[in-house]
Specification:
562 residues; alpha+beta; D-Maltodextrin-Binding Protein, domain 2; three-stranded antiparallel sheet; 22 helices; 17 strands; 41% helix; globular; Bact_solute-bd_prot1
Length: 562
């Protein structure tokens, strides 16, 4: 039975039997007016009388609890009870692989917990079926300042996801914009050796990649270097988030956004992968592959990272956090000097960066639960006390993420840019630790303390040779600081970046049954065109098939989503 039919049946039963059962389970308690004192409404206000909240969550079977503890009885549950007088009860706990199915069933049967953190697809479904509470006043009265700061940092891009007619319908687990910002990482030491400048556009990128392939930049006398490495066989050519080794910036230089829902010049919703700009990008990539500028083992390698660490690659694409992944190369002699750029530029001189959603997980509260502020308070406690729990050893076995009742990662959407700017001023002597407000920056103080120990003069040059590389990587902030000061520099300093968001990041009804096949069709077609086993004309055949096999219907569904 389709979800919509199941839901309709359940709702009908609920209306006919208001005090009975719905879909085989006792109906959720109807929401009644609850009078709380001002103290109880505050972000960390403790309830005078115990409040119970029913939740659901996943549990990794590999998580090991201390003796006598479990997902339902542990230090986090105790902390919530002690601090807030909230009793946490789990309606069910499942393995991570079963989560989507369990939550979809809960939504379709209208058999929901009091609160839950869900992805965008399920959040949209719960809004569609009028299952969740308006949290506007709850957020205003009970969200802590840090949570409010995270929400504010997302701006209009975030409110479009979370608000309906000005009402806050969820509390988003915000994530840094930089996480979805792909850029060009290039061997600066190779450029210097060959007397080249960092490329800014496609033609310059081709020239540099050709030099990296043909002019022996590693100096071993062999023609064994790779100009641009791309994704391995388990990777993707492009994505809707930060994609390591994806070729997203090359697509974006043609203003092509595969996987994105966009509006064309007439205001009509279109799918980025089927647009003429994507055909242009594929032709360019096919030319680059034919000329040997792209890795010949594109989508064939088991892993694209080993050639990078072995010093055989000149260019790859990825987000700011690549500084963590390539940290082994800092200790080589000499170290590889990877630098990041917002490149290649489009023909108009702008860098068009496709951006991921400013939040992908959302706290929602059952509209029938009479203490919606309890769920927000649990999040407040996480944000305030997680550092203390880690320091005390509470998280040493399970980790907060594996056991905290309503866990998600929250951060400022502009956190990396703020960190870059403050650290830059700090190294110039324009600000001090004493002058810095750390109330909305969880890791910044540690970054400021570490960069003084790890960065050598000149302080405004972040080439790898200007860092103290003698420290142990696993016990220092070096990979993180390189990621921020090198990896986030383009997003923090470039003025010609144009961010592009998708109109929709969830899953429509038709996508549930058709999307896997449509994605396979897309990926196979694009791979064949790039690697020369199919002509560029096959793109037009792909577009026709994509529309006929469900694409047109999906576009119609996305167009109707508010």
């Amino acid at each position: 039975m389709k979800k919509s039919k199941v839901l309709a049946s359940c709702l009908a039963v609920s209306m006919l039997v208001a005090t009975g059962t719905a879909c085989g389970k006792k109906a959720t308690q109807s929401k009644t007016t609850t009078t709380l004192s001002k103290a109880e409404q505050k972000p960390f206000g403790r309830y005078k009388k115990p409040v119970t909240i029913h939740l659901v969550r996943t549990l990794d079977p590999n998580v090991k609890f201390d003796k006598g503890e479990s997902i339902e009885k542990n230090g986090y549950i105790d902390a919530i009870k002690k601090s807030l007088n909230i009793n946490v009860k789990f309606d069910w706990v499942c393995a991570p692989g079963d989560w989507n199915q369990k939550m979809s069933l809960a939504i379709s049967s209208n058999n929901l917990p009091d609160a839950v953190i869900v992805d965008m697809t399920r959040y949209k479904a719960m809004m569609k079926y009028n299952q969740i509470a308006d949290l506007t006043s709850t957020f205003k009265n009970s969200a802590c300042d840090l949570l409010k700061s995270y929400y504010k940092s997302g701006g209009s891009a975030l409110t479009k996801l979370t608000e309906v007619n000005g009402k806050i319908m969820s509390v988003p687990a915000t994530s840094p914009k930089a996480n979805g910002f792909n850029e060009m990482w290039i061997r600066q030491d190779w450029l210097k050796k060959l007397g080249l400048k960092a490329p800014t556009n496609i033609e310059e990128l081709k020239a540099v990649a050709k030099a990296f392939v043909e002019k022996d930049p590693d100096g071993n006398g062999k023609k064994d270097t790779i100009g641009i490495i791309g994704p391995a066989k388990s990777g993707t050519l492009s994505g809707t988030d930060g994609t390591q080794f994806g070729l997203d910036p090359i697509f974006s230089s043609y203003q092509s956004y595969p996987g994105y829902w966009l509006k064309d010049n007439s205001g009509k919703v279109v799918y980025g992968s089927t647009q003429p700009q994507t055909k242009q990008a594929l032709q360019s990539l096919a030319d680059m592959y034919k000329e040997g500028l792209l890795d010949k083992e594109l989508l064939v390698r088991d892993d694209s990272m080993p050639p990078v660490k072995d010093g055989k690659v000149g260019v790859f694409f990825g987000p700011w956090w690549e500084g963590y992944n390539i940290s082994d190369v800092y200790l080589q002699n000499p170290p590889q000097d990877w630098q990041a750029y917002a490149a290649p530029l489009a023909s108009d001189g702008n860098y068009y960066a496709h951006l991921s959603a400013p939040a992908s997980n959302f706290l929602v509260v059952n509209k029938n639960y009479k203490h919606p502020e309890a769920a927000v308070k649990i999040i407040n406690l996480l944000l305030r006390d997680e550092p203390k729990w880690v320091a005390s050893g509470l998280s040493k076995n399970t980790g907060t993420g594996a056991a905290y009742p309503l866990f998600s990662v929250f951060d400022n959407v502009d956190e990396l840019e703020s960190s870059y700017n403050i650290l830059t001023k700090f190294m110039k002597g324009e600000t001090t630790i004493k002058d810095t407000d750390f109330s909305t920056h969880k890791l910044l103080k540690g970054d400021m303390e570490a960069i003084k120990q790890l960065k050598k003069k000149p302080y405004d040059d972040y080439s790898i040779n200007n860092w103290n590389l003698k420290s142990k990587l696993e016990s220092s902030n070096l990979p993180r600081l390189v990621s921020i000061m090198v990896g986030d520099k383009p997003l923090s300093t470039e003025k010609n970046i144009k961010g592009v968001y998708s109109l929709y990041y969830g899953q429509t009804q038709t996508m549930e049954s058709r999307w896997a096949n449509l994605q396979k069709l897309e990926q196979e077609t694009f791979a064949k065109i790039i690697m020369g086993t199919a002509p560029i004309s096959s793109f037009d055949d792909f577009v026709n098939k994509w529309n006929q096999q469900g694409g047109e219907k999906i576009i119609s569904e996305v167009s109707k989503i508010k």
